[in-house]
Each structure stands twice: as structure tokens, then as C-alpha cells.
Amino acid sequence: MATAISYRVHDAVGWVRLDGPDRLNAIGTTTYTELADAIGHLGRQRQVRAVVVHGAGRVFSAGADIEEIRGFAGRGEFEAFIHGFTDALDVVAASRLPVIAAIHGAALGGGLELALACDLRVAARDTKLGLPEAKLGVLPGAGGTQRLPRLVPPGVAAEMLMLGDPISAERAYSLGLINRLSEPDTVLQVAAELAGQLAAGSMQVPAAAKSLLRSTLRLSVDDGITQERAVVADLFDTPDGREGFSAFLDKRAPQFVSE
Q: What gap in Å lies between CA 186 and CA 171, rounded to an integer?
């Protein structure tokens, strides 16, 4: 049975869960389609200010649905599958909302690629993370070869891609791939705390930060700073920008209004 997606909203945070514990949350066509729909729906809800993606059962996700892939007749069907998968992860990456991956057990293959498409990653200390496609004679096809080297040193990315061996959450944290470490039984709690911090802040900041990071990725530092100046000046000239400075000077908590 395909891994389904369920979601709910609690205290301004959208919780998106991969619901296929009996198959280690394998990601198939149904899964990534429902994932994109859930992220899109939450992004349109004015009361939602952050999203946490997590997995049911023993792992975050063991990767793409190999049973579905095994049934493909040839290159065309596989290409359509990875095209749909990458499109769905682009929806996650492009969401106006900050998206946090709460990872436990393992995030492998497509599961790690999903986590890479999120903005921030929280992982339990005993988690394994990897792109094992090399052991199948292929490479990751849902953004892994592109997003991973933007988050870790190129040599580490090359090793993970060419050998397919997983790394520990501890090592991933030291490399900057993981933002927060937790104990095995507190990963959702730590993710909730991080989401709560984001939800309590100005909503225009995560959206602007995501947009600026994407648009300046391949620019020179000088050209990137030119864009930064414009974005920051625009933010300053908003109700939230003015409120933030006034609250700081008045030594009080800001009351942000952006949605």
C-alpha cells in the first residue's frame, strides 16, 4: 500500500506526516503528489506560519518506492516518476512558509532528498542519513546531487554520492546538514520549539530570506549584496519593519502583523 500523507494544524504550525510505517514511509507517486498538495494547501492558510514534515513509525523515510519503480517498463516511466518527484520537492522548497524536517531513524535516498528540500532539519542523534543509490548502480534523481553539495563541502557530497554510505546525525550536524540534534524521543518536541520560534516572528522574514537565498545563489557577492540592499530596504519600509525597531527601542516584545 502506498505511503499516504496526512496533515493537521496546531498552534499556527502545520504538521505533515508520511503515513506508511509498514513500508518505512517509501515515497511513491501518490506520496509525493499528496505531499505537494498538503504543502500547497498549508501555504494558502493565513493562520499557518511554519510547517514540520515528519514520518510515522520507525524512520523518517527509507526512500523512493522501489516496488513501484520495479514495475516501470523503461526509461520513460522512470523519468516521469523522478520528474514528478522533483516537482513536488520544488513545491516544498518554494513554499512561502519555513519548512522543517523532523528526522528520526533514517532518511535515505528520496527520504533524504525530501529533508534537503526543507529549510531546516532536526534529527535524533541515532539517525542515519544517506543517498544509497550508488549501491543500485544509479544516482539520486530528486535533487540530491544538487541540494546536497549546497549544504555540505563538495568532497563530502562526492563521497556520499559515489559510495552510497550513510553518515550519522552527529556527523551531519558537524557538517551543517542538520540544524538541531535531539534525543531519539524528543525530535518532534525540538522541531515544535523551532517551529514555534519561527511562527512567533515576522512572517515576511522567512519568505524574504528564502527568496533571497534562491535568487542570489549563483551571483557574485557584489551582485548578491545589491539584491540584499533592495530586499532589506523593502522590509524596513513595512509595518513589521517599523514595529520591530520601535519595539527594540521601547524594550518590549514586537507585535508583528504580516501574514
A: 19
Torsion sign over Cα 62, 65, 70, 75: negative
Catalytic residue among 133, 183, 193, 228: 133
Q: What share of the chain is helix, strand, coil (3-state, %, to 5)?
A: 50, 15, 30
Closest CA to 191 of 93, 118, 128: 118
| Catalytic position from the list 67, 113, 159, 170 | 113
CA pair distance 238, 147, nearest whole angstrom: 32
Taking only the tens of pLDDT, the chain with its 259 residues reads 789 999 999 999 999 999 999 999 999 999 999 999 999 999 999 999 999 999 999 999 999 999 999 999 999 999 999 999 999 999 999 999 999 999 999 999 999 999 999 999 999 999 999 999 999 999 999 999 999 999 999 999 999 999 999 999 999 999 999 999 999 999 999 999 999 999 999 888 999 999 999 889 888 999 999 999 998 998 888 888 888 888 888 888 888 887 7
- pTM score, whole prediction: 0.94
- 181 forms beta bridges with 123
d(CA 50, CA 167): 28
Q: How far is CA 81 from CA 97, 141, 246, 250, in A?
A: 26, 9, 51, 54
Domains and CATH numbers, the chain: 5-200 (3.90.226.10), 203-250 (1.10.12)
Is residue 77 flagged as an active site residue? Answer: no
Q: First-to-last CA distance in the chain?
A: 38
Specify whether 113 is catalytic. Answer: yes
